Amino acid sequence: MLLDINELELHPLDFEEKFQPDVIDFGAEVRQRGPLSTSGRAEVVEEHHGKHEVIKDLRLRGRLSADLELQCARCLEPVPQHVDRDFDLLYRPLGADAGREEISVTDAEAEIGYYQGEGILLEDVLREQVLLALPLKITCRGDCKGLCPQCGKNLNQEQCSCSTAVEDPRWAALKDVRSRLEH
Ligand SMILES: [Zn+2]
Ligand SMILES: [Zn+2]
């Protein structure tokens, strides 16, 4: 859904949308389970720079909620994650800040994005907000045993027989040294 700056200039837009899985691409490691709901308001905010220049920013406020699934970093099993997030974002036309050091300094604390052309896609904003809300790395539980590096079995579910047969390379090296000393 395009948030069109020219339309928003005529009137703010209140939106309430649901996005089914696969409409928004969250990347290979995130799966969406069920629709993502979002509601909020988009509007144009005018910034007056000096006497003559008006910059049209796009302000987007709202909330989103979604059920997602990440992969456990150790055993790769799916780990459910619920995201509820409020956002209040400001997008400035790309290039509006060019050559304006004094303004960038004043705004340094605010998180500002940029839009190009007609406006921004709500889907792009939602993707970014969801990814920001998710942890970079997750484990299914604190003591997840992970996968056996030899046979790939999920060690939370079953023991495999290779664990004892596998030799730590450091021990192997030590043994090697010892056998050479003995001879
Ligand atoms: Zn796990
Ligand atoms: Zn194994």
* SSE succession: EHEEEEEHEEHHH
Radius of gyration: 26 Å
Bound molecules: zinc ion
Low-confidence stretches: none
Overall structural class, as computed from helix and strand content, comes to alpha+beta
Q: Biggest sheet, open or closed, and with what strands and sense? A: 6 strands, mixed
Q: Tell me, what's the shape?
A: elongated
Kindly report how far apart the N and C termini lie.
Answer: 76 Å
Helix proportion range: 10-25%
In DSSP terms (H or I, runs of 4 or more residues), the helix count works out at 5
Q: What value does the average pLDDT take?
A: 87
Tell me the strand percentage band.
35-45%
Number of strands: 8
Using brief descriptors, characterize the structure shown.
six-stranded mixed sheet, single chain, 183 residues, alpha+beta, 23% helix, 37% strand, binds zinc ion, two-stranded antiparallel ribbon
Characterization of the model:
The chain has 183 residues and is an alpha+beta fold. It is 23% helix and 37% strand. Helix 2 links the parallel strand 6 and strand 7 (112-115). The longest helix has 14 residues, at 169-182. The protein starts with a strand and ends with a helix. The mean pLDDT is 87. It binds zinc ion (2 copies). One zinc ion binds next to loops. One zinc ion (ZN) binds next to loops.
